[in-house]
Amino acid sequence: MGALWHPFSDMGAVTQNGEFVVARGEGVYVWDTEGRRYLDATAGLWFANVGHGRQELADVAAKQMRDIAAYYTFGDVATPATVELAERLSSIAPMKDTKVFFTSGGSDSIDTALKLARRYWHEQGKPGKNIVIGRERAYHGTHVGGTALAGIPGNREGYGSLMPDAATVTWDSADALRAEISRIGADKIAAFFCEPVIGAGGVYPPPDGYLAEVRKVCRDNDILFVADEVITGYGRIGGAWFASTRFDLDPDMITTAKGLTSGYLPMGAVLIAGHIAEPFFKPGVWWRHGYTYSGHATSAAVALANLDIVEREDLLSSAARLESTLDKEVSTLAVHPAVAEVRSGFGAVAAVQMADAADVFPMIRLLRKHGVSGRAVGAGGLQISPALTMTDSEVSEMVAGFDEALRELQ
Ligand code: PLP
């Protein structure tokens, strides 16, 4: 076995069973090092919204690298691509006068928003508002703040106390949020973090009316509402750039990454409503936060070209179409006795929940045997989050692969 330590992995099992090494990708397909082709059911880790192997993005990256691969954006420094991307994101964000803070990925975006929410209240003369509330099943990346905030207990185990100022409520009840706010006291709470569709925790679309209600609870209690759109942002939710747009959430901040570049280069961005940024834009106020690669020039150039593709190919409409196709097609898998439930119907995401969680890894091997690259999600689920370019016949091919794998599992 080699030196690579895989993230989120049972390395003993990987050492025993070997690695799945992907060498090439084109559209919704990837190829392993043996030249075998797989339909990519997950678009990597929910990121390849425009599909794999876009020559255009490689060309943009190469040109930017020849001009200048990267500079930095601390102080008054910037690159043209960084400035242009910030303007572009501000123009598609659903909030007023949006400012854009660049990061290197989703976990950075979460901890940036978390620190900014708390610091905002300090600037407002309310330094007691430090507690952040997340939801059960939520995933907010793996930095210390995001790990503490998220609602997946296994991810928090074995580190001692990560961040005592984090609280968790059930994922589906606005009443639970209200009760937690009255227990803690709104004067101690900085922000509520909310994935519009719970992703890595198992793909749980929100109950009807839930998002509008928790948004209102936060507004009524002077608590910032942060939409974690690392998965749902940039079109995956269908019909709009952000789930926050589609559901009229008017969040105080949106955390993003993944679909910003479709994963062609690492990059994240926090979109910050003008009224939250305003105290930080006064002369003499410094926010001592940022990353070497905040606004990385090549990532920014690729992000711009990626957003161009989403617009040119109208992938926001494609995602809306995929929402109903997936809902219709993937739900047919529920007839298999090994399947407990299928969750879908909200954006280009779905999950096949196995009745026995022990079946997930055998299923992933069987899916590969039947030409589909899949992965585990939540507790005992299989993830479906294809490129937004996936055609109806490719959806049928993917579902047929699941069907064959499920038959063979029995
Ligand atoms: N937030 C959500 C909702 C995510 O799904 C993820 C990653 O899957 C993250 C944050 C963390 O992003 P990254 O893995 O880029 O650090």
TrEMBL record:
Highest rank taxon of the organism: Bacteria
GO molecular function: pyridoxal phosphate binding; transaminase activity
PROSITE patterns in alphabetical order: AA_TRANSFER_CLASS_3, SUBTILASE_HIS
Keyword presence, Transferase: yes
Example of a GO cellular component annotation carried by this entry: cytosol
InterPro entries in the cross-refs: Aminotrans_3 (IPR005814), Aminotrans_3_PPA_site (IPR049704), Peptidase_S8_His-AS (IPR022398), PyrdxlP-dep_Trfase (IPR015424), PyrdxlP-dep_Trfase_major (IPR015421), PyrdxlP-dep_Trfase_small (IPR015422)
A Pfam family matched in the record: Aminotran_3
Keyword annotations of the record: Aminotransferase, Pyridoxal phosphate, Transferase
Record has Transcription regulation as a keyword: no
Family: Belongs to the class-III pyridoxal-phosphate-dependent aminotransferase family.
PANTHER family: AMINOTRANSFERASE (PTHR43094), AMINOTRANSFERASE CLASS-III (PTHR43094:SF1)
Protein name: Adenosylmethionine-8-amino-7-oxononanoate aminotransferase
